Amino acid sequence: MALVEVESVSKSYPRRAGLGMEEHTVVNCVSFSIEAGETLGLVGESGSGKSTVARMILALTPVSSGAIRVDEVNLASASSATLRKLRRQMQPVFQDPFAALNPRMKVFDIITEPWRIHRNDPDLPHGGAALRTAAAELLRQVSLDESAFNRFPHEFSGGQRQRINIARALALRPKLLILDEPVSALDVSVGAQIVNLLRQLQREFGLTYLFISHSMPLVRYLATRIAVMEKGRLVETGYAEEICSAPQQAYTQQLLAATPELPVHRDS
């Protein structure tokens, strides 16, 4: 069953044109679905509309036309209470692991902040001892330990900061992670470690991923299916191996030729 359904979605913004204003379309009639438990790779150059699509799925940006359903709920008509519940199920991991972390907060406070925000939820940990135990388990899942609790983000490497970001994203036990260029700010070898971690977490928790990238080889490794965007439009979709082995569009061929392979460890 589809966890996410994007149907004929467009997004336009007003911009100045001479003495007047005009509508600038950044996403143009895009449709795709993401099945529960799979990874959809959304690929395209900077400015192709990928991040705008992600923001619309997260209900951070309203659609101009079309519809987005998450867990069969239409985001445009959902109440604020329903959206609040849905946002728990959809967590983002952004490109810059340093900018995404509050530099004035220690790691323990960063990891446990989602639980404090949702403190009325009986299914989440509460109280000092429970928070500490649960936070330590989250860090363990991303290959960090409790020694990180009292340190600030600037004391960690880029790869470690991204692991902290991922741990925080997992705190509310989401169904869907929206990964917006999560390794593009990292060294290639460190990025490969993060990608392998994401694969491991997906297997362990049955997560669904929307993985946004400009790198076709990277998406080929992680994704079940690939959707290619060019200038706001979806130009090609299909299973990852098919798209990468026999791309139908010249733009997809250019993306494949433009990015090197990532040294990730392939397993069964």
Write a brief structural summary:
The chain has 268 residues and is an alpha/beta fold.
Largest sheet: 6 strands, mixed
The number of helical runs is: 9
Topology order in helix (H) and strand (E) letters:
EEEHEEHEHHHEHEHEEHH
Fraction of helical residues: 25-40%
Kindly provide the name of the CATH class. Answer: Alpha Beta
* Domain unit count: 1
What is the end-to-end distance? 24 Å
What is the average per-residue confidence, as pLDDT, rounded to a whole number? 90
- The number of E-state strands comes to 10
CATH architecture: 3-Layer(aba) Sandwich
Low-confidence stretches: none
CATH topology: Rossmann fold
State the secondary-structure class: alpha/beta
Strand order of the largest sheet: 6-7-8-3-9-10
Tell me the name of the CATH homologous superfamily. P-loop containing nucleotide triphosphate hydrolases
- Computed Rg: 19 Å
Q: Hey, roughly how much beta strand do the residues contain?
A: 25-35%
Describe the structure.
- It is a single chain.
- Helices cover 36% and strands 27% of the residues.
- It is α/β, with parallel strands linked by helices and 268 residues long.
- Strands 6-7-8-3-9-10 form a 6-stranded mixed beta sheet, sandwiched between helices.
- The mean pLDDT is 90.
What order do the helices and strands come in, and which of them pair?
Blueprint: E1 2-17, E2 20-35, E3 39-43, H1 50-57, E4 65-70, E5 73-74, H2 80-89, E6 90-93, H3 107-117, H4 128-141, H5 158-170, E7 176-180, H6 188-205, E8 208-213, H7 216-222, E9 225-230, E10 233-239, H8 240-245, H9 250-258
Helix pairs in contact: 3-4, 3-5, 4-5, 5-6
